[in-house]
């Protein structure tokens, strides 16, 4: 399952970069098809995480029980990027109808006193990503000259 989680993270980042790509040489239909494939993979992986959450939490609020634990922190650190992917792709990835336990866990985790002021908000991450993208584009243009 660790490999699947790594794949999920990679798929999520692929989706983020795919959706924000301004490469006009890439046909919209190809981007839409690729986006659908990546979203499908992410949904499959989130279904596995939903199953893991149900088994690990045993009906409690977090993976480890009543309070935030190691696994919650390890997975929760990616929630900001999940929200960014949802914003830029206009696709709800943590969907209460498909993964109710995981969606509820995400909300509880992000609002927990131990992490709510630490995990960056999606707009902050999106701004950082856009600055990085602009810097890379500028560097590529400079290198091309």
Automatic annotation (TrEMBL):
Domain GST C-terminal span(s) in chain numbering: 1-138
Record field: catalytic activity: RX + glutathione = an S-substituted glutathione + a halide anion + H(+)
One cellular component term from this protein's GO annotations in UniProt: cytosol
Family annotation (CDD domains): GST_C_Tau
Keywords: Cytoplasm, Detoxification, Transferase
SUPFAM superfamilies for this protein: GST C-terminal domain-like
GO molecular function: glutathione transferase activity
Any GO BP annotation: toxin catabolic process
UniProt keyword annotation of Cytoplasm present: yes
Subcellular location: Cytoplasm, Cytosol
Pfam families for this protein: GST_C_2
EC number: 2.5.1.18
Enzyme kind, highest EC tier: transferase
Protein task: Is involved in the conjugation of reduced glutathione to a wide number of exogenous and endogenous hydrophobic electrophiles.
Stored PANTHER family: GLUTATHIONE S-TRANSFERASE U17 (PTHR11260:SF615), GLUTATHIONE S-TRANSFERASE, GST, SUPERFAMILY, GST DOMAIN CONTAINING (PTHR11260)
UniProt record similarity statement: Belongs to the GST superfamily. Tau family.
Name of this protein: Glutathione S-transferase
Organism this protein belongs to: Sesamum calycinum
């Amino acid at each position: 399952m660790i490999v699947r989680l790594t794949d999920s993270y990679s798929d999520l980042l692929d989706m983020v970069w795919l959706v924000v790509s301004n490469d006009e040489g890439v046909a919209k239909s190809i981007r839409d098809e690729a986006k659908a494939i990546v979203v499908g993979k992410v949904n499959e992986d989130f279904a596995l995480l939903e199953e893991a959450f149900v088994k690990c939490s045993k009906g409690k609020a977090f993976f480890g029980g009543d309070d935030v634990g190691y696994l919650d922190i390890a997975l929760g650190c990616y929630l900001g990027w999940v929200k960014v992917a949802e914003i830029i792709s206009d696709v709800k990835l943590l969907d209460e109808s498909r993964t109710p336990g995981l969606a509820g866990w995400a909300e509880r985790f992000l609002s927990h006193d131990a992490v709510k002021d630490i995990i960056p908000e999606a707009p902050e991450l999106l701004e950082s990503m856009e600055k990085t993208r602009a810097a890379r584009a500028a560097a590529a243009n400079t290198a091309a000259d």
